[in-house]
Amino acid sequence: MQRKSLTRDECPIARSLDRVGEWWSMLIMRDALQGLRRFDEFSRSLGIAPNMLTRRLTALVDAGMLERKAYSERPPRYEYVPTAKGEDFRMVLMSLVAWGNRHYAEEGASVQVVERGTGRLVQPMMADADGQVVPLDACTLQAGPAASAGMRERLESFGQ
């Protein structure tokens, strides 16, 4: 049974999940953003079946999250390097670390998000275009310029 594609969905969450919402994809991106590049490195780190790893790497390349670069011609071997789009995903993963620590790390945090230079703990937050922090409870969703009538109605019905 083929999974429904969300690439044409108007919701940016649905579109994003279509590209990276499968858990292997997110773990591959985690590893790639931490410096792993080669198939065997991902395989060792994740314990994933080779055919699944091949499919997920191909999907991440197709989604523009990773770039495939040859590092050996004989035999042909490739590295998978995060693109600018893939680097932007770092923010999503760091937010998941903070959220997971808050809600699912009863034994304590095994990984923390810190400022590289000082080691001080940091937390994800919202900021306006000038960089001023905006409390999450002061944020809401609104229809964007490309929103359809259905999306506008949906956001209004949720009290947005």
What's the short story on this structure?
With 160 residues, the chain is mostly helical. It has helices spanning 12-20, 23-33, 39-46, 50-62, 84-88, 90-104, 149-157, and strands at residues 66-72, 77-82, 126-127, 133-134. It contains 7 helices and 4 strands, in the order ααααββααββα.
Total strand count, please? 4
**Share of helical residues:** 40-55%
Strand order of the largest sheet: 1-2
Order of H and E elements: HHHHEEHHEEH
Provide mean pLDDT, rounded: 90
Major β-sheet, in short? 2 strands, antiparallel
- Number of helical regions: 7
Structure keywords:
single chain, 160 residues, mainly alpha, 7 helices, 4 strands, 44% helix, globular
What does this molecule look like?
The chain has 160 residues and is mainly alpha-helical. It contains seven helices and four strands. The strands form two sheets. A two-stranded antiparallel ribbon has the order 1-2. A hairpin with a 5-residue loop joins strand 3 (126-127) and strand 4 (133-134). Helix 2 crosses helix 4 (50-62). The model has no long low-confidence stretch (mean pLDDT 90).
Topology:
Elements (H helix, E strand, L loop, with lengths): L11 H9 L2 H11 L5 H8 L3 H13 L3 E7 L4 E6 L1 H5 L1 H15 L21 E2 L5 E2 L14 H9 L3
Antiparallel strand pairs: 1-2, 3-4
Helix pairs in contact: 2-4
